[in-house]
Amino acid sequence: MTAPITTPTAGTDPYTLDHGSTGYRVDRYELDLDVRLGSNKLIGRAVLRCTALESVGRLVLDLVGLRASKIQLDGKKPQKFSHRAEHLVVTPAVPLKADQQFVLDIRYDGNPQPRRGLWGDVGWEELNDGVLVAGQPNGAASWFPCNDHPRNKSTFLISVTTDDNYRPVCNGRLVSRTRKSSRETWVYEHAEPMATYLATVQIGRYSVIPLNDAETHHRVPQFAAVPVDLAEEARNGLRRQPDMMRTFEDCFGPYPFTDYTSVVTEDELEIPLEAQTLSIFGRNHMRDTWEAQRLIAHELSHQWFGNSLTVSGWKDIWLHEGFACYAEWLWSEESGVMTIADRAMAAWKKLEVSPQDLLVGDPGPELMFDDRVYKRGALAVHALRMAIGDQAFFGFLQHWTAENRHGSVSTESFIMAADAFIPGCDTAAILRPWLYEKPLPPLPAAR
What we know:
By secondary structure, the chain is α+β, with helices and mostly antiparallel strands. The chain has 3 domains: 180 residues, Sandwich (Immunoglobulin-like); 96 residues, Neutral Protease, domain 2, CATH 1.10.390; 125 residues, Neutral Protease Domain 2 (Neutral Protease, domain 2). It contains 9 helices and 22 strands. A hairpin with a 4-residue loop joins strand 1 and strand 2. The longest helix has 18 residues. It starts with 23 loop residues before the first strand and ends in a 12-residue tail after the last helix.
């Protein structure tokens, strides 16, 4: 019997109903972007190397605000392609079979703009002098056609051609830089699997400076991409980052990538932005205050929790933000600012007088970035630590990050892994009041 042909639709995650397809996966993206900064014009070519996961009669890609002009499927024209709302729909001449590998070659162009939705503006955004990409949670489709879901991880090759005297900063290793007339092309290779929302392009008049020197030596190379006139400000604001890296490696295990770059924009930004191997800060974040330093620590910790280990569904976002908030507390204690016990107490007191009307383990799309997800998620992490003790807790975290390196995770897999690693531990019973009950539990007692 022939397997039925299905038509995968968007809506594989209830938090981002219009994004992601279950019918195929993208194993590799090869993006060739020509960016005209003066007119905010993007001329792109995206080669997607894919595998069908079931028999499919249509391929649904996410693409917002840009138009495809030419498409080839395995070197030939498809039966047809069309734009429907925020999707690019490609119909093969012959339906694809499960496990069949195929290549989509898409030429597209337009004036990219950020998407406006529940989480404000996300995606491709013009700066005063350059470009910023804020991909979380569904901004990737604003600059390239993709299968946009956090569990879909791929390798990337990103080539950016842009105006002279501007530097694009992308995920991964810079493999080449060539110049022709008044245009320069920069090519980056990212070999580790990456979710689409973590792919990024930052363009500005950036110089790249090292943050590791003889006094702050660390095995992970760390850099800042920064306008020349902000170099000293950035060096000062980021001077503790090598110490943060050392602290987090002690707690979470080896840094999961080869290097780390902080991009500092001329513009002031409301919040920093996360990308794989990169974080993006405004010049207003280059301060010595705790508020600025905690954000620097927060974004660095996302390289473990969010980038290497990425949730398979957005309802489990506490696994990103709860751990990143707890990383702030770890750095607070390590740097002598305030103990973790005091941070936990302050967070608990704030939650006590806040509405207790959401489930942190499934907050809903409108509240997935609510501060209560961050703080109560961190207290859930703290509750587990208090219940099992430091040796078991940090041993498990290092096991968890190693076993799931560059993979997809969920609350369920976290609980199963903790129970298997820690004899006699009932992780679900410890976490349930924090994640799946609305009333605030008592502050976790110290062992």
